[in-house]
Q: What sequence folds into this?
């Protein structure tokens, strides 16, 4: 096995361990020392692969995108409810994503480019989903490109409200209500 392959495998192991630590302790409680211990490295050894906690968390987000459900232009709008339901089953992952997103709005944050690019792609996908359903204009007259950022804002806004008060915000049901405002009649639970 080449040194490059071993390094890639070690990085993947570190990312998996980071996901576990975040799931157990949350974003703030996830330390580089805890991750290093989990994979049998010193903290200095971990820093060889990921120079900062933020760089490690960006790698976690990128890995998540490899297996995570991301809206696809071929989706139907009613399938977005399934995405919201799926996210409601993963509070630790959603919390990590949301914490990093909030921090990434600051200039120079290591996750800023990642989130900027991700949101551009998500808006494009949402516009395609809306176009497939409504054509060039939604019933309210907006183009899919104008409505896409609003749809993304609803999805993310519901996540934040749900993370803050999960007993009061039923994220999937609230999203079904939003689709109803668009004229959809999504299936209920």
A:
């Amino acid at each position: 096995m080449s040194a490059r392959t071993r390094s890639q495998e070690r990085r993947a192991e570190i990312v998996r361990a980071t996901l576990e630590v975040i799931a157990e302790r949350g974003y703030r409680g996830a330390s580089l020392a805890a991750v290093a211990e989990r994979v049998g490295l010193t903290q200095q050894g971990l820093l060889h692969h990921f120079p900062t906690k933020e760089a490690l968390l960006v790698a976690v987000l990128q890995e998540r995108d490899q297996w995570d459900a991301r809206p696809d232009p071929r989706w139907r709008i009613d399938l977005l409810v399934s995405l919201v339901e799926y996210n409601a089953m993963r509070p630790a992952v959603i919390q990590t994503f949301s914490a990093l997103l909030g921090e990434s709005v600051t200039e120079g944050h290591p996750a800023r480019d990642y989130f900027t690019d991700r949101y551009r792609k998500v808006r494009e996908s949402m516009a395609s989903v809306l176009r497939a359903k409504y054509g060039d204009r939604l019933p309210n007259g907006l183009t899919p490109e104008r409505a896409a950022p609003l749809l993304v804002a609803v999805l993310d806004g519901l996540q934040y409200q749900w993370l803050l008060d999960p007993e009061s915000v039923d994220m999937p049901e609230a999203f079904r209500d939003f689709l109803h405002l668009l004229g959809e009649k999504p299936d209920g639970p």
User: Anything to note?
Assistant: The first helix runs from residue 3 to 29.
